[in-house]
Amino acid sequence: MSLQNPVFIPGPTNMPESLRRACDMPTIDHRSDLFKDILHPARDGVKRVLKSATAEVFIFPSTGTGGWETAITNTLSPGDTVLAACNGMFSQKWIDMCQRHGLVVEIVETAWGEGIPADRFEGILTADTGHKIKAVLATHNETATGVRSDIAAVRAAMDAAGHPALLFVDGVSSIGSMPFEFDGWGVDVAVTGSQKGFMLPAGLGIAAFSAKAMEATKTGGLPRTYFDIQDMAKGYAANGYPYTPAVGLLNGLKTASDMLLAEGLDAVFARHTRIATGVRAAVAAWGLDLCAARPALYSDTVSAIRTPEGFDAGRIVAHASTRYGVAFGAGLGQVAGKVFRIGHLGSLTDVMMLSGLATAEMAMVDLGLNIRLGSGVAAAQEVYRSSAGQIALAAE
């Protein structure tokens, strides 16, 4: 693998040099006044990226998986029931975590390639007149299948059912790259990590809690120590942590939030949509299909691309790595060997994406697939030329 080439995996993503430098800082005393000037701006920046005026943001030396555990262990009690759709590898993993913690999971089995079935959620919640279900789990962007679910529709289903359950949202591969409305969607806990939309190394698990979720921590909770947000809140009040923080990564997170907000969140989201649209045009030109069942579900951060029946998609990933030094994502779980994934999020430009599409084409042609060199690149170029022109006109 060449360190000179960008990566096209759905995370960790490419790291801007300014963020690399922000993380590479001298050791400071994390119990000194210097640390508060990193900690509190980092938390505030995340809150602004989430578009929330009220969320309490907690940042752990961890990953998104730690964020999942933070959500459930601080608000739920042994034997509680949660509702979740299983429509991909990462929704499946969150379900597994809940079960290991002694929670009862009502699973709505959903085809991989489909989004969360909000209508089925509404029926289940309406029937739950005793309010046995304490939380609804929703994976906003299923990284394994390239499917974006409609979180606003999930909240609408909960409201239509008149159900008081908490809404937990996995935004690991969406937050910072696609529109996310913490307040507007009525999210109670949002989970993400440092290594995707925030363009940093892995190492920070981020969980934002609503006032309702904070209230739930007072009356319930599974056993926890490391991920206890009450301990963390006490540390924050004293400008510190209950244990040693990842100071360099927090400084990187502060800088990353500043970068996203300086670009403008709408501009960030438009950039991701434009790059993703080019990728989808390339896939169509190759005569291939996406795993996502229909356009309304298409993710703007990752495309899972189906290969012809009987062809092992993992060969494309392996060949691109060994022959061209470029990383793509392999298929996971039920779609292992059936799809390869192109990540198009974080620090990425149209021109960088064209290099990834050209590499994918070369790998597929090398392996004997009926792909014409340049076809996907040309299709993406038309998208990027057209949208670049629109942007220039708007600027004038």
The CATH top-level class label of the largest domain: Alpha Beta
Low-pLDDT runs of 5+ residues are: 389-396
**SSE-based structural type:** alpha/beta
> Biggest β-sheet: count, sense, barrel?
7 strands, mixed
Strand order of the largest sheet: 1-9-8-7-4-2-3
Q: What is the global morphology?
A: globular
State the distance separating the first and last CA atoms.
42 Å
Query: What fraction, in percent, of the residue positions are helical?
Result: 40-55%
Q: What is the name of the CATH architecture of the largest domain?
A: 3-Layer(aba) Sandwich
How many helical stretches?
13
What is the number of independent domains? 2
CATH superfamily of the largest domain: Type I PLP-dependent aspartate aminotransferase-like (Major domain)
Under CATH, the topology of the largest domain is which?
Aspartate Aminotransferase, domain 2
Give me the oligomer status.
single chain
The proportion of strand residues reads 5-15%
Describe the structure.
The protein has 396 residues and is of the alpha/beta class. The protein folds into 2 domains: 17-262, Aspartate Aminotransferase, domain 2 (3-Layer(aba) Sandwich), CATH 3.40.640; 265-395, Aspartate Aminotransferase, domain 1, CATH 3.90.1150. 43% of the residues lie in helices and 15% in strands. The chain contains 13 helices and 13 strands. The protein has helices at residues 17-23, 33-49, 64-75, 89-100, 118-127, 151-160, 211-216, 229-237, 247-263, 265-285, 314-324, 350-366, 375-395, and strands spanning 56-61, 81-86, 104-109, 133-139, 141-142, 147-148, 166-170, 189-193, 204-209, 289-290, 302-306, 329-330, 339-343. Strands 1-9-8-7-4-2-3 form a 7-stranded mixed β-sheet, sandwiched between helices. The longest helix has 21 residues, at 265-285. The radius of gyration is 21 Å and the shape is globular. It starts with 16 loop residues before the first helix and ends with a helix. The model is unreliable at 389-396 (pLDDT under 50).
